[in-house]
Every structure is written in C-alpha cells, then in structure tokens.
Design a protein that fits this description.
Largest sheet: 4 strands, antiparallel
Structural class: alpha+beta
Strand content: 25-35%
Distance between the termini: 17 Å
Shape: flat
Strand order of the largest sheet: 2-1-3-4
Length: about 80
Amino acid sequence: MPYDPRPVSQGGNRGAGELFTLRAPAGQFRVVGVDTFDGTDAVLGDYLTVEEALARAESATFLKQMFKTYVYDDNVYCLGSFGSF
C-alpha cells in the first residue's frame, strides 16, 4: 500500500492518535515504529526503563531500510529515534 498520511478512519495508514497514543503509561517508555514506505505505524512495546526502550528501538531498525523507531515518555517527549527513511 502506498504512503497515505491520512488517519486510518479516513482511509489512510496513520494509526497514531486513533488506534494508539504516543504517550507511554505513567513512569514507562513507549517504542513506536513507522514504516516510512507505506506510512503504517504501531506500538512496538512499553518498557520500564529508558535504556530498555532505546535498546528495543535501535534493534528494531537493525539492517532495515525505510523503517524508523521513536521512544516517547509519559509526557510524549521524544527521547530518541533510530532508523532511516
């Protein structure tokens, strides 16, 4: 499916804001993956420590192209990003 930036409810690929939130549970860190080819996104997991979240985000992009990961805290502050477009 080609990239379509519209939300899922409007026929697009973007789930953030509709299917899930970028905000991690209180005291945790959320890893979100984005396929930059087709625009789909998903939560890859919630972690108790920022070190675990950053390690998961980095490993999820290993040897992949057009895939990005982001780590967010419970204030929706982006703590890191990995991968390439």
